[in-house]
Amino acid sequence: MERNIIHLDLDAFFVAVECRKDSKLKNRPLIVGGSSRRGVVAACSYEARRFGVHSAMPMYLALQLCPDAKVISGDMESYSKASHEITEMIAEASPSFEKASIDEFYIDASGMDKYFGAFQWATELREKIIKESRLNISLGMSVNKLVSKVATGEFKPNANKHIVAGEEKNFLAPLSVDKIPMIGKQTSSFLHDMGVRTVATLRDMPINFLVSAFGKNGISLWNKAHGIDESPVVPYTEQKSISTECTFEQDTIDVKRLKSILIAMVEKVAFQLRDQKKLTSCVTVKIRYSNFDTETKQIHIPYTSSDHVLLRVVTQLFDKLYNRRMLIRLVGVRLSNLVHGNHQISLFDDTAETINLYEAIDRIKHRHGVEKVIRATTLNVNKRVRMEMNMFKGNV
Fold first, then answer.
1. What residues does each domain of the chain span?
2. Is residue 285 packed enough to be buried (19+ CB in 10 Å), middle (13-18) or exposed (0-12)?
3. Nearest to 125 by CA among 160, 169, 152
C-alpha cells in the first residue's frame, strides 16, 4: 500500500496568535522574544524576515536589521492554548497523527485513496483549521515524513503541496543541502567545503564515501538525498509529567547532601524536557520522612526548560517544605503542565550566550551521556544515588 504522509506546520505561529489577539498587528514587522538588548528572537513575522531577522538571533542584531519592528515579550500560555485547539481539530478528523512540536504535526493518511483522495481530504482539513482557528497552516504531502516536511518548508507560507509518488528525487534535487531536516550547521559547512551544495550533488556521491566521511550518519545522508525515509508517524499521547525520585539506603538529615541530590535531579529532568522539546509551568518537590509521612509543595511558574530557573524554584520549595528536622528517606522532583516548545521559546528573557551554553551542554550529554556534564555542587552525589534517581513519565 502506498503511503500518504501529511505534514502540517502553522505559519509564524507565535506571531499569528498575537495577531489573532490584536488585529492591528497584522502585516507589521513583529518580533517575539526577550525584550532586553541581549535577549533572543523566539519568532518573527514574515515582514520581519524580509529584513534578515530569524529565530535564535540576538535581539540587538534583529533590531539593527529591522529597527521599526515591534517587539512582543511572548505569552506561552496563549500559544499552548492555541496549539491545543489545533491538536483537537486534527485528532477529531485524523486516523493517526503525531504532534512533532507545538506548531507541527504529521498525519498518516495511507489507505484513504480507496475511498477519496488523500490530498483532497488533507486540503479540506487545512481549510477547516484556517477557518475555525483563524490561524494559517501550511501543508505538504508525499510518501514519507522527510519529503512532506521539506515540501511544507519550501512553499511556506500558505503551502498546500503534494509531491506525488516517484517525484521525490526530482523535487529534492535542486534544493540546497541545508533544506534537508537534521543537517546541522557543522555537517552543512563540511559538505559545502567539499563542494556539495545541492541535494543532487549529495545524491550522486557513493555511499561508501559518505560513510567514511560521516560514519553511520553517512547512510542517513545518502537515504535523505534519495528521498528515502521509513520513519513511522508515532501516534500522539499527551504527556502529563516528568518526575524523578530517590529513596536513600540510609535516612539522612544532611541538608547539604539533600540539596545536591535535588540539583542533580533538576539537571536530569530539565535535560529530558529540552530533549523532548517541552516546557513546564508547574514544579513540585516531594519529601518522605523516616516515619513515612509524605509531604509535597508545588508552584506555578512561567513556561521554561532551563536548569537555572528550575534550580532556584526547587531550592525555594525544599526550604519551605523541610521544616520538621526529621530524618528523610526519599526526595523527588516533578515537572507538570507540559507543553511543546523548543529551547529558545523558554528563554524569552535570556541571552544568546545562555542559549548557546545550554545547546552545547545538551550536545555533549547526547554524545557522551548525561553524567558527563554536571554542576560542581553535585560531585558528591555518588553513582549509586544517581542510578536510584528513577525517571517517571506520566501520560494521560
1. 6-139, 166-236, 239-395
2. buried
3. 160
Are 275 and 364 in contact by the 8 Å Cβ rule? The answer is no
Please say whether the structural domain 6-139 has been given the CATH code 3.30.420.40: no
- pLDDT category, 345, cuts 50, 70, 90? low
Q: How far, in Å, CA of 292 to CA of 260, rounded?
A: 22
Q: Are strands 160-162 and 137-142 parallel, antiparallel or unpaired?
A: parallel
**Is-contact 305 362, C-beta < 8 A?**
no
AA letter at 5: I
Tell me the per-residue pLDDT of 49-83, one tens digit each, with 9 for 90 and over: 999 999 888 888 999 999 999 999 888 888 888 99
* CATH 3.30.70.360 at 166-236, yes or no: no
CATH superfamily of 239-395: DNA polymerase, Y-family, little finger domain (3.30.1490.100)
What are the grid coordinates assigned to 71, written together? 517587539
**Exposure letters 131-145 (e unless 16+ CB within 10 A, then b):** eebebbbbbbbbbbb
Q: What's the CA gap between 256 and 272, in Å, rounded?
A: 25
pTM: 0.76
Amino acid, single-letter form, for residue 41: V
Residue 115: HSE in the Cβ half-sphere, 13 Å Cα cutoff = 5
- Residues with a known catalytic role: 104
Q: Which three cell numbers stand for residue 233?
A: 508517524
